[in-house]
Write a structure and sequence with these properties.
By secondary structure, the protein is of the alpha+beta class. It has five helices and 21 strands. The protein has one domain: Endonuclease/exonuclease/phosphatase (Deoxyribonuclease I, Chain A), CATH 3.60.10.10. Helices cover about 20% and strands about 30% of the residues.
């Protein structure tokens, strides 16, 4: 059994007490950010991207594209605190071109991020991806897992990205980036797809843990379900019980704050659908890679929040309905700190 001490003390909002990553080799910060429709402004005949074109419904052109790129870059740099994050998961990006633009023609250029990406079968053309600092993370391999729903074979959704790399302490990290099917069309009607994705992911995790019970595994993404929903607790098999945590359990770092705050707002109701989930072995006292006691952060800085006409607060997004408001995203970034020991 893994003993986890003072679990609840690590949860807090970034704007209240943002914890900059320490400037030392033991610090390893991970970030996930749903950047909301980061499309280029060129037509791709193989996807449904017409809305995000200069003459499309949102009049998406070069200026708006570059503005959003710079805002996303500013946010990612800020999430790092004293130094840029070591590893970043992203979703709702259209293609590799927008990632190349982001890493080469914004403030991120000086950091030297490398890209992990592959086009998925999503009909709109939006994908998951990862950025990593080669000085902090040596890429070993990566895989993209396609989700084929047996009960809906014509459905197309985002892949699950599995990034494998070596951290500075020589431990191997398995980083899974997810963007599960949304509740568009009804939560009940779409739930089987999220449960299928959860069970698929759990199978991949179990395969790794069967080979090595000490495998360091982090799951992140926009799961489109909250920590207490069936896809998470039953399909993925997460636990929130810190007192009886086993090394091969999946512990949901966001569970205890699900009624306190959120990463996304819909109809003025906040929810936590962007999450970090880790293997219990990273809570062992002598583990060479450990989860910090103050690690599961929601990066809710004031400039990422807007106030509506009713006074309700929500993420400062790019469009409010059809109207361009020039914000960042309809999601807030989340952060996870690991401490590395040799």
């Amino acid at each position: 059994m893994v003993r986890v001490e003072a679990q609840k003390s690590r949860y807090y909002l970034a704007s209240e007490s943002f914890d900059p990553a320490p400037r030392n080799e033991n610090a390893f910060r991970l970030v996930f950010y749903n950047v909301e429709n980061l499309f280029d402004y060129f037509d791709d005949s193989t996807t449904i991207d017409e809305e995000f074109l200069p003459r499309g419904g949102r009049y998406w052109g070069k200026t708006r594209y570059q503005t959003k790129q710079n805002m996303i870059a500013k946010t990612l740099i800020a999430t790092g605190g004293w130094e840029p994050p070591a590893l970043i998961g992203l979703c709702e990006i259209e293609n590799r071109y927008v990632l190349e633009s982001l890493t080469r023609f914004t403030q991120l250029k000086a950091i030297g991020y490398e890209i992990v990406h592959k086009d998925s079968r999503d009909r709109r053309g939006i994908d998951v991806a990862a950025l990593y600092r080669p000085d902090k993370f040596r890429l070993i391999d990566f895989e993209h897992y396609t989700l084929n729903f047996p009960f809906d074979p014509d459905s197309r959704t985002r892949d699950i990205l599995h990034v494998i790399g070596e951290m500075p302490n020589k431990d191997t990290l398995h980083y899974f980036v997810n963007h599960w099917p949304s509740k568009f069309g009804g939560a009940f009607e779409t739930e089987p797809k999220r449960i299928f994705a959860a069970e698929f992911l759990r199978h991949k995790v179990d395969s790794l843990l069967e080979i090595n019970p000490d495998a360091r595994i982090v799951l992140t993404g926009d799961f489109n379900d909250e920590p207490e929903e069936e896809s998470m607790t039953e399909g993925l098999g997460t636990t929130e019980n810190a007192e009886e945590l086993q090394k091969t359990d999946l512990f949901n770092l966001m569970f205890d704050i699900r009624y306190v705050t959120g990463t996304h707002s819909f109809e003025n109701k906040w929810s936590i659908i962007d999450q970090f989930i880790v293997t219990g072995n990273m809570f062992e006292r002598d583990a060479s890679t450990r989860v910090n006691t103050r690690s599961a952060q929601i990066f809710d800085m004031s400039w990422l929040i807007m106030e509506g006409a009713t006074g309700a607060r929500r993420p400062f997004r790019t469009y409010q309905g059809p109207k361009y408001v020039g914000g960042y995203s309809d999601h807030l970034p989340i952060l996870l700190d690991l401490s590395l020991y040799k």
